[in-house]
Amino acid sequence: MTWRNTYFLPEEVSSHNTRGDCWVTIHGVVKNVSQLIEEFGYDVNLVNPILQEAGQDISYWFEMDGLGVIKLKTHLLPETGARVSLLPFRIPHGPKFEPDVNWEPDISTTPWWADEKYNVGVETVRPINVQIINPLIKRSATIKICFEDTVQRIMERYSVYNPKICTYIVKYLGNILNTNLNLIQNGVTLKYEDSVEDYIPTLMLYYQERLAPWRVV
Fold it and tell me: Where does the record locate the signal sequence feature (predicted)?
């Protein structure tokens, strides 16, 4: 699974909020910048602004061009033509804080905010709730998931309630769900008809002796 197919709830991102485990979100992309913090840790003035926003959305630091490229917000001083950052502080790979007419981005180095090596996933466009019932043990749980989660990912989230979830198949209204697809792709209703309120779908678990065609990883 690539980072483009890995989705996180906002609270999952916000839990990574320390110097040694620092995530941020930029225009929906979740980045693990712990390595960056370690690399530039010699200069607290560079890393402190990021650490103060650890686990948060820092999209307001950046803008996205028509090609989807993320760029640091800068502007030209009309008096001098110098390009300066709109941020009131410096960050790694950013321009000098003071006006510098000669500053240009270092094209030999991809700035961290545009470097995919820091990407770990995508923040969900909408968290939703789903009810999961195991009729064998008469147990029900309602869990929060990402709108984009595949059924396999949903079961991985549910595994905290049942570590042996890989021995179950999942059904909705009597139909076996394809674990490689999300709920919408499986035809699961997520909205009440003629209502803006979310509908909480109910998934049923059915035990089988052999392992289901997927495993919790």
Answer: none
